[in-house]
Design goal:
By secondary structure, the protein is mainly α. It has helices spanning 21-35, 55-68, 83-95, 106-118, 185-195, 208-221, 251-256, 261-270, 283-289, 304-317, 320-333, 341-347, 351-355, 361-367, 369-372, 381-384, 389-402, 409-422, 427-439, 447-467; strands at residues 8-11, 40-45, 77-78, 99-102, 143-146, 153-158, 162-167, 175-177, 200-204, 227-231, 234-235, 300-301. Strands 1-2-3 form a three-stranded parallel sheet, with helices on one face. Strands 4-5-8 form a three-stranded antiparallel sheet. Strands 6-7 form a two-stranded antiparallel ribbon. Helix 5 packs across helix 6, helix 8 (261-270) crosses helix 10 (304-317) and helix 17 packs across helix 19. GO terms for molecular function: ATP binding; glutamate-tRNA ligase activity; tRNA binding; zinc ion binding. Belongs to the class-I aminoacyl-tRNA synthetase family. Glutamate--tRNA ligase type 1 subfamily. Its EC number is 6.1.1.17. A motif ('HIGH' region) lies at residues 13-23.
């Protein structure tokens, strides 16, 4: 199944809601396949359903793709805006005998089907107008139907599913152009894919039957058939089709939960595709490795524990600049105010320590709480227990000891140890009131990391606030 043409893939969502995680994976597969081969990745908005398509949904899809880091070539194509071209092709098929005018009314079609059901026959509509003499056609309203082959087979040569055969007696003369002159989705898709030069159609396997019907349009027009790759859908952890009962299904929900885009790309790529035993990889590796042969035939299962593992790996591997950019995107996605210059300045020195432990961005921000607050520090109940009169005396002593220190880790640690030794206390007992004073929490990064990050003036001010 080779194709010598430059690779062109496309993602073609319907703008009727948010970007589903399954759609995001489909987009990713198309993006990886094209980018790994120096090809083009195109975006088409299938907005022919005017009743359900909304500009807000279109924008939500575009935002989702941007957040995921998938760039597309050229401007997004509106399927609706191509309706004149779709009609033109339908009339061309009418002229060359590959399609015909059908004057059957909805009532007549339903009557045909009811009779077929009663007689135990196929309810596939057989139009009486298929072979009518053109001279006998009335002037009334009509649809244009494909004159599909009635015998033989249509074979979908699928890069994932293998050869899938459909008996032509199972496929109807589908409507190409409705009586009001608007194209059907099935017809518009083929015209658009041909006109956009799409060479590889990678999409969900719920479109497999559509492929057989669409191949008949390609054949009728004498157009080159693209490579099809129908990928299994994503299931929940229980093996059932993914739905809201399993938790998050929209890509925006994963952004709001604080999974970095790089981690989502890695995880979604591995969801139904494999490259040996490789679980953790970057974009360059994914582009180099991704191929259609690595896609499995069985539905993939969403696994939140694995996603957390992948997320933790990517957070740990990120540069500080990339991580700050991810944090900014996360805060924007959740409607949280952006970090101030001061917060970034306090946070940056401890990022290396924090990102080694955090599995998600909110978990990292939770540990970074000390850098995100301002005086007076609010002390939570657990931390407040560490601030008795003895502890406040330790804070007073430590404040005096480090006031003129060089503010290096060695000097700060030495001062704390000396105070502990003089009181017969271990460093852990000294650290507890320090955590409370600096962060208002009992679980924090290293107290010395916090002191170094906050700097002399802020540290001393927070200690003095609690020394009393």
């Amino acid at each position: 199944m080779t194709d010598s043409r430059p690779v062109v893939t496309r993602f073609a969502p319907s703008p009727t809601g948010y970007l589903h995680i399954g759609g995001a994976r489909t987009a990713l597969f198309n993006w990886l396949y094209a980018r790994g081969r120096g090809g083009k990745f195109l975006l088409r908005i299938e907005d022919t359903d005017r009743a359900r398509s909304t500009p807000e949904a279109t924008e939500a899809i575009l935002q989702g793709l941007r957040w995921l880091g998938l760039d597309w070539d050229g401007e997004p194509v509106s399927q609706f805006e191509g309706r004149a071209r779709h009609a033109e092709v339908a009339r061309e098929m009418l002229a060359n005998g590959a399609a015909y005018k059908c004057f059957s009314t909805p009532e007549e079609i339903e009557e045909f089907r009811e009779k077929a059901r009663a007689e135990g026959r196929s309810t596939l509509f057989l139009s009486p107008w298929r072979d009518a003499d053109p001279a006998s056609l009335p002037d009334g309203s009509y649809v244009i139907r494909l004159k599909a082959p009635r015998t033989g087979q249509t074979i979908v040569h699928d890069a994932v599913q293998g050869d899938v055969t459909f008996g032509n007696e199972q496929l109807d003369d589908m409507v190409l152009l409705r009586s009001d002159g608007t194209p059907t989705y099935m017809h518009a898709v083929v015209v658009d894919d041909h006109d956009m030069g799409v060479t590889h159609i990678i999409r969900g396997d719920d479109h497999l039957t559509n492929a057989a019907r669409q191949i008949q349009i390609y054949d009728a027009m004498g157009w080159e058939i693209p490579v099809f790759a129908h990928i299994p859908l994503i299931h929940g952890p229980d093996g059932k089709k993914l739905s809201k009962r399993h938790g998050a299904v929209g890509l925006h929900e994963y952004a709001a939960m604080g999974y970095p885009a790089a981690a989502m790309r890695n995880y979604l790529a591995r969801l139904g595709w494999s490259h040996g035993d490789d679980e953790l990889f970057d974009d360059a590796q994914a582009m180099a490795w991704f191929d259609l042969g690595g896609i499995g035939k069985a539905p993939a299962r969403l696994d939140f524990k694995k996603l957390e593992h992948v997320s933790g790996h990517h957070i740990a591997q990120m540069s500080d600049a990339a991580l700050l950019a991810e944090l900014a995107a996360y805060l924007e996605a959740t409607g949280t105010p952006a970090l101030s210059e001061q917060q970034v300045a306090w946070l940056s020195p401890v990022l290396t320590a924090l990102k080694a432990k955090a599995k998600t961005l909110p978990a990292l921000l939770e540990q970074a709480h000390f850098a995100l607050i301002s005086r007076p520090v609010q002390i939570d109940e657990k931390a407040a227990a560490a601030l008795d009169s003895v502890s406040r005396g330790i804070l007073q002593e430590l404040t005096a000891a480090v006031q003129h220190a060089s503010w290096s880790r060695d000097e700060l640690e030495t001062a704390a140890k000396q105070i502990g030794e003089s009181r017969g206390l271990g460093l852990g007992k000294i650290a507890a009131p320090l955590r409370a004073a600096l962060a208002g929490r009992s679980s924090t990064p290293s107290v010395f990391d916090m002191m170094l990050a906050l700097g002399r003036d802020e540290t001393l001010a927070r200690l003095q606030d609690q020394a009393g």
